[in-house]
Structure formats: C-alpha cells, structure tokens
C-alpha cells in the first residue's frame, strides 16, 4: 500500500479546521451560556455560517481526493472528523435556542 502523499496539505488542514471549528464553537456557546449576552449568540450564528462554508469546501476537496488516491485511510478519518461536526453544531444550536428562549421570558 502506497503512503499517502498530501501535496496540498488538505488532510492536515481539514483536521485542523474541523478541530478549531469545534473548539471555537464550544467557547462561543460557553460564553453565551455564562453571560447570557446576545452578542455571543449573534457571533455564534455568524461563526456557524462561516464554519459551515469552510468545512463544506474542505469536505468536497477530501471527497475529490478520495476518488483518486490509493491510500484512503487518512482521508476517511479526515472526512469523519469533519462530518462529526454536523450533529455537534446542531446540538449547540438547539442549546443556544433554549438559552435564548429563557432570556426572553
């Protein structure tokens, strides 16, 4: 089995972006929970949109690279890391909406 050559760095980049997206999203949600400041909710929504776009672009790049490489294990792991952010982001969104509804009441 050939070693995977990541000439473009898309594997490392996608993993880094996915992990940083998770960490920054978690921090924004934590600050919103602790302060109940709606500015953090707005920041979270903007961040969610930007992270979705960036992660989607990287996911497409990984899928294209997956179809042309022989060594696909690293690509599968990177794809799964990015895809794991989807249910996490949805859960964070639901938590933020719950916090927001308690602020309004």
UniProtKB/TrEMBL annotation:
Superkingdom: Bacteria
Name the UniProt record assigns to this protein: Branched-chain amino acid:cation transporter, LIVCS family
TM regions (residue ranges): 16-34, 40-63, 75-95
Record keywords, A-Z: Membrane, Transmembrane, Transmembrane helix
